[in-house]
Amino acid sequence: MTSVVFGVLISCLLIHLGSAYFLDPNCPIDPDHNSVSPFPWMALVMLPDKNCSGTLIYKNFVITSANCVFNQSQIKVLLGEFNRKLKKNTFEFPNKEILVRSVYTPSHYNENNYKNDIALLQLTENVLYEAHIRPICIWLIGFYIDTGKQNFTTPLWYLTKKWTFPFPKRTLFSKLELDLCEHSLGINPDKSQICAGHEVKLCVEAGSPLVQKITFNNRSRHALVGIQSYGVSNTCLYTNIESYLEWIVGIVLKVEIIVNNIF
Q: Where would one find coiled-coil regions in this protein (predicted)?
């Protein structure tokens, strides 16, 4: 897609959404201070034989890794789950399971490597936003997120643990040089990927978000930077969201236009 076409898509989407900067203007301000859930965008992607992580980015779209959902069927996502010890009333803040209608992956995704490892899950219904269910911010125009910064947050479900009720927990990651990923993972990453790690051994969680806090209009928000693709021990490889903005916007806008024309 050319930059001119992408510019037209962005303009159409922003006119439709009434937002000048974010894919979904309903992404929360200062989610760390949210009395209900610090990660209202976190999704658990549930498959018949495994679970992965995902992130709500729009009212009917969750983003995850392609390797999680490639050639899979009967996909559901769980939204609104967080530490039940913090819930004042489970009935007041219920979680929600939604079936996936369609899965979008880049046409040049190859399951034998980790390039273009990203997927959009179109849900069968629009999500009703509540205090504990909100989309993460995706920055669209002007300057983008500074992926040159060294520190990120990664909420993880810790799916390898035997939790009765899993809930996402904050983990701090630091950016690593790409050649370190090449040495640790035995692959040759490019600019469409981000290498990050933690000082202690962590479980690898496909589809988990790499998040950066940004300041916009003197208010803090959390923006999606990457989607975990692969990792071993304390080194993980992420798909860089900035490299796929055109693809993401193109699909979201196309679905919006189709739905609006139907109804």
A: none
pLDDT under 70 in the chain at which residues?
A: 1-20, 31-35, 83-91, 141-149, 161-166, 200-203, 256-263
**What's the one-letter identity of residue 215?**
T
Q: How far is Cα of residue 117 from the mean position of the Cα atoms in its chain?
A: 12
Measured CA to CA, the distance from residue 79 to residue 135 in angstroms comes to 10
DSSP conformation class of 67: H
d(C-alpha 193, C-alpha 178), whole Å: 8
Q: Is the separation of the CB atoms in 220 and 32 below 8 Å?
A: yes
Q: Name the residue among 145, 156, 137 with its Cα closest to residue 56.
A: 137
| Residue that is written with structure tokens 């916009």 in the block | 216
| Distance set, CA 66 to CA 49, 81, 137, 188, 254 (Å) | 16, 23, 21, 19, 20
Distance of CA 149 to the CA centre of its chain: 19
Cα–Cα–Cα angle for 16, 21, 27, rounded to 5 degrees: 85
CA atoms within 13 A on the CB side of 192: 10
Q: What is the pTM of this model?
A: 0.86
User: CA–CA separation, 63 vs 66, rounded Å?
Assistant: 9
Query: What is the residue whose two structure tokens read 């990664």?
Result: 154
**φ/ψ (deg, to 5) at 22:** -115, 150
